[in-house]
Amino acid sequence: MMRVVQPYLLKCCGRRDYMPEEINVILKNDVKKKSPSTRLLRGRLTIDNGRAFFEENAGQGNGMLISLLDFDLIGEIPAGSPPVSGGTMIKAYRY
């Protein structure tokens, strides 16, 4: 929803920079489930020794709003992915 609604609202308000910044980050922890479809995870950007990490927020289930607390990144796990190990580089969108 955030990938669609926020850019749409910003564009409607006349903003030219309505798309979130796309960055590459290192997954801090394992994602233990396989991803038959694209998985969008809410989390935080953390910097450790000059490297950017994606730290997943708790409560990622459908309808779980707690994961929206203090999030500033949405990490993308591509469709068809097996479980992903921590240390893997992923694409993320900064909000």
> How many domains, as an integer?
1
> What is the share of helical residues?
10-25%
Distance between the termini: 13 Å
Mean pLDDT: 87
Widest beta sheet: strand line-up: 1-3-2-4-5
SS field, number of helical segments: 1
State the oligomer: single chain
Element pattern in H and E: HEEEEE
The CATH class is identified as Mainly Beta
- Over all CA atoms, what is the radius of gyration? 14 Å
CATH architecture: Beta Barrel
Tell me the fraction of residues in β-strands, as a range: 35-45%
Helix and strand content put the structural class at mainly beta
Describe this structure in words.
This protein is mainly beta and 95 residues long. The chain is built from one helix and five strands, in the order H-E-E-E-E-E. The longest helix is centred in the N-terminal third of the chain and has 11 residues, at 2-12.
Describe how the helices and strands are arranged.
Layout: H1 2-12, E1 21-27, E2 39-48, E3 51-56, E4 73-77, E5 89-94
Summarize the entry for a quick read.
This protein is mainly beta. It is 12% helix and 36% strand.
Annotation keywords:
single chain, 95 residues, mainly beta, Beta-clip, five-stranded mixed β-barrel, 12% helix
